Amino acid sequence: MSNMREVAKLAGVSVSTVSAVINDNKNVSGELRRKIEAAIVQTGYRKPSAEEDDIGRTIAVILPGICSSFFSPLLNGICDIANEHNMSVMLLDSKRSIKAEAKLIQTCVRRGIRNIILDSVCDIPHEEEYFADIRENLIRRRGMRVAVVERKLADEAFFSIYVDNYNAAYEATSHLLDRGCRKLVHITGADEFPHTRIRENAFRAVLQERGIPFDEKLLLEGDFTPLSGFAAMRTLLDNGIAVDGVFASNDQMAIGAMKALIAGGRKIPGDCAVVGFDNLAMSSLVTPGLTTVHFPIYQLGYQAAYLLKERLNGKKPQPWVKLECRLVVRGSTRQGKTDDWDLLGW
Asked: How confident is the model at residue 25 (pLDDT cuts 50, 70, 90)?
């Protein structure tokens, strides 16, 4: 089925002018109206029913785990845009399965949903092929609009909203070394997310630049859950490996690692300093407060929904939005630091 953009292109006018004619706005001149009506006939366009219009203004949000604390502010940002612009939101959970993610995308196609915000679990080796297929079959063939969060794609057919994971992780690792830590642990995230390897690479680069040998035993595998952070640190302590600094790839694993350190009789930050990534509300509520990289999660969702809204309204915003991170220093790396509290964000 053709759309207003095709009518506008054929008639040589804006989408808003086509909309004015379809909705019988009397301010459009007779000549221009006849030109647009001819284009409507030629393209076979018909005005969507109320039900179809509702579907056309629906944003499908496909996330890899809706129970994760990370996604609450992201969804808040999406819903704020949706509420402001008479759009609705449909939440879908891939449960970190690329097969489930692909099926959910096809569900959106079958239901006629044309706006998708996607936090994909496609791994790096398959990224180019996977997103090329989405570009051809969804965006180009069906005119769908897709915003990808937490991942920068070179393909400008997509919207990409992302942060500079490398520099943020570099600053977090440098902070531990600057306070005197020399035997650092890095707890990685899940392999399906590209930022897992980016943050690890930054960690390795800082150690190399500072002349500190990299010890593979101090690279611990996590999956972004608190339990994985706890288990990784507990295994390290049980093996009698002494460390004085931890950089975890997200706050939830960092807090799990802190629980293991405290249970093992270690003082934070006296015996071991800890840094996380995300600045979730809970990072300000644990004791000591967690030093972490502030990730603008609300803006991640807000910008993704805003870009889809703009494209839906016939505008052509830039496809890439880079959000800024910053290090938030709390008591987990600085003794006696007075911590802030976030009693609203959880």
From this structure: confident
Q: What is the DSSP letter of 287?
A: S
301 close to 73: Cβ distance less than 8 angstroms: yes
Q: In the chain, how long is the greatest CA-to-CA distance?
A: 84
Tens-place pLDDT, residues 197-211: 999 999 999 999 999
Task: Name 242's Cβ contacts closer than 8 Å, sequence gap at least 6.
Answer: 183
Rounded Cα distance between 213 and 207, Å, is: 7
Count CB neighbours of 161 within 10 A: 27
Amino acid at position 197, single letter: R
Backbone φ and ψ for 326, nearest 5 degrees, come out as: -155, 155
What is the chain's percent helix, strand, coil content, to nearest 5?
45, 15, 35
Contact 249, 306 (CB under 8 A): no
Whole-angstrom Cα distance, residue 44 to residue 38? 10
CA-CA distance, 163 to 181, in Å (whole number)?
26
Q: Which two tokens stand for residue 50?
A: 């109320």
